[in-house]
Fold this sequence. Notes:
Elements: H1 2-24, H2 46-51, H3 59-63, H4 66-84, H5 90-116, H6 119-145, H7 149-161, H8 165-168, H9 172-194, H10 198-219, H11 230-233, H12 236-269
Helix pairs in contact: 1-5, 1-6, 4-5, 4-12, 5-6, 5-12, 6-7, 6-9, 6-12, 10-12
Amino acid sequence: MAPIFIRALMTVTISTAVICFLVFDGGFDRVHTETGLKHYAERASPILKTVLPKWLKMPLNTLVNFGYIVVGSYWLAVIFYRNGQENIREVDAYTFYVFNIMACFYGPIQMMRIVMDKHRLAILDQWVTLPFFMWVYIWGKCISNNWSNLRAFIATAISMSSYTLALYYDTGFEIALGLHIVLAIVGAFFSYQKYPVIEAKKSFIYAMLCCTSFVVLKLLDLHLPNIHPFFLRVSGHFLSKIGDVLQIHYTNKFFMALTCEKTAKQKKLN
């Protein structure tokens, strides 16, 4: 149990460390990012400004990042328990661990970007998003075609290197992210085709709705205040992050349903 968790932790730590080194070495400084309050709709109310520290300019957009840590930690605990009870295979536990450790890592990274508002932190925030989505594709292929170290390594390497598109195009990150979202959906679809259980179908629909809200609300962030001033306090960006956190939760539920179905069928065969 513990060695699998340590292996997953090292997987995420090493890949994140590589990205951090490349970002803070300065090789990606010419990537276009959006920094400054003008790119966010949230404005703290005058009352809150009197009690909040000056560096906390967007309280909701900052605090929502704890959601990634909470959801990631919850699912890590679930898998730790189920793996200990031998209700889940080690390779399946590994895939769950990697995904949710990524969630726990992403929360603080996004929080630092919001609070410190630095160009390199914005690059880091964008870059670590890509392997997060790619892991859903790897996970889906693991369910439908069993685990492959080579496939996981190649997919991760392609995912990490795809961020170089941002060096050549202002919308390079958006292009790479769009391709990653499509791949994640494809991987999930094929895994569901292999084990079509109702619970997985429901979770897939909820995850897709959350993913859509994540994308749409983020794009509408600066436009929503034109509809109502409420969205200056509770911004589209904040709401999109809630959708993102829920997307992680339902992705876990989706793969849990598939994993349970797969395990049950393998037990019957044995």
